[in-house]
Every structure is written in structure tokens, then in C-alpha cells.
Amino acid sequence: MGGPEMAPHTPPLAGRSSPGLDRSGGQPATARDQDRAPGVPEVPLITSARAEVREADLAGLERDSLMLTAEERRWGRRRVTTTAGRALVLALPTGSVLRLGSVLHVAADWYVVVEGALEPVLAFTPASPEEALRVAFEVGNRHFTLALDGERVLVPDDPAMGHLLTRLDVRFDRVRAVFAPIGMGHRHDR
């Protein structure tokens, strides 16, 4: 069962599974559009969450940024636009997470750095180390992540987190901040 007679239509293995998606691990690729109009630039195809580059190599290049929320930094397959309006195509390996401050792409005269976008969070300053540990345990037990921002602890502005902090009698504020989670965490509903 399952022999070649079952699937005679199976195509032979190829180095590319989609036009423009280079899985060979070779040099940086670009997303190619066969119907692209003349004069329209090719869109860089990003296949690694971090470009290996030295700080000295960036001297004299224009710095561009990609502003992403914590959740967006986990989405590895999509088209994005930088703050300067440049298009990029992300085709990152499954499970990749873009890190704040990482250089994502270097072109001839510009480069792109990953930056955090402001997003809604619940912020509180723990009254004691015990409160901080208790909240961290409860947040993690619900498979949410948390972040530190100086003395403040940040959690996603989610109804479950609001209910939790209220139940634990923790005073919190709804604010907008860059959310850089500690650890990777995961949610059962996603």
C-alpha cells in the first residue's frame, strides 16, 4: 500500500517549491514576479531571522526599520513594509521569531532593523518580590508571556489577563508599550 502505483502524478523533487522561494540555503534571493512591469524593483526575500553582519559593514548605509508587535514578530511568512515604505517578503523557517534590534536585511545602500511597535498591554509595578513571582506563575500557567519594562511588569491586554490581575488584587494600568516577552510561551487557542 502506498507504492508508486498509488500516486503516479507525484512530481519529481525540485530545488524550488514555489516561484521565487529559494530553499537551497544559498545566496539571498528576491521575490520574482514574472509579470513585473519594467522598472519595478524586485522585492527582497528574507529567509533568515538575522543577517550576519558586522556593525562596521553598516557604516554609511541608510537605516530603515520594520515595526512589529510581539505577535507579528512570530509571523514568518508574509509581505511586510518598512517605515521607509520598502517591501520585503518574509519566508522564515517555521518557529522563527524576529528579535528586537536584529538586522534583517542589508542592501547596497540601506539595511533593515527589527523594532518593536507600541501595542496595548497591562502594566503594573509589583508591590513585593512575592507578588511578582505569584503573578509570573499565574500568567505562565495560562500560557501567556510577560515582559519587564524597568520596574514594571507588562502582560498582553487580554480579557483573561485583566481578570487575573483583578482577582489577584494587583493594581494595573492599560498602556501602550513595546512588548518584548521573556521566553517564548504559547497559547492553546492559536
Notable traits:
mainly beta, 12% helix, 32% strand
Task: Write a structural description.
The protein has 190 residues and is mainly beta. The chain is 12% helix and 32% strand. The protein contains two helices and 13 strands. The chain has helices at residues 129-141, 159-167; strands at 16-18, 21-22, 29-31, 43-46, 62-68, 77-81, 87-91, 103-106, 110-116, 118-124, 147-149, 152-156, 173-178. The protein has a four-stranded mixed beta sheet with strand order 3-4-7-6, with no helix packed on it. Strand 6 (77-81) and strand 7 (87-91) form a beta hairpin. The radius of gyration is 22 Å and the shape is elongated.
Spell out the blueprint of helices and strands.
Elements: E1 16-18, E2 21-22, E3 29-31, E4 43-46, E5 62-68, E6 77-81, E7 87-91, E8 103-106, E9 110-116, E10 118-124, H1 129-141, E11 147-149, E12 152-156, H2 159-167, E13 173-178
Parallel strand pairs: 4-7, 5-9
Antiparallel strand pairs: 1-2, 3-4, 6-7, 8-9, 10-12, 10-13, 11-12
Number of strands: 13
Radius of gyration: 22 Å
Continuous helix count:
2
- How far from one another are the termini? 35 Å
> Strand portion, in percent?
25-35%
Main β-sheet: number of strands, strand sense, barrel status?
4 strands, mixed
User: Helix/strand/pairing class, anyone?
Assistant: mainly beta
Overall, the morphology is elongated
Kindly state the mean pLDDT as a whole number? Answer: 82
Main sheet strand line-up? 3-4-7-6
> Into which percent range does the helicity of residues fall?
10-25%
